Amino acid sequence: MDEDILYHLDLGTKTHNLPAMFGDVKFVCVGGSPNRMKAFAQFMHKELQLEGDGEDIEDICAGTDRYCMFKTGPVLSISHGMGIPSISIMLHELIKLLHHARCCDVTIIRIGTSGGIGIAPGSVVITDTAVDSFFKPRFEQIILDNVVTRSTELDKELATDLLNCSRETPGFPTLIGHTMCTYDFYEGQGRLDGALCSFSREKKLDYLKRAYKAGVRNIEMESTVFAAMCGLCGLRAAVVCVTLLDRLESDQINLSHDVLVEYQQRPQLLISNFIKKQLGLCGQMS
Ligand SMILES: O=P(O)(O)O[C@H]1O[C@H](CO)[C@@H](O)[C@H]1O
Ligand SMILES: O=c1cc[nH]c(=O)[nH]1
Question: What interface predicted TM-score (ipTM) does this complex get?
Answer without folding.
Answer: 0.99
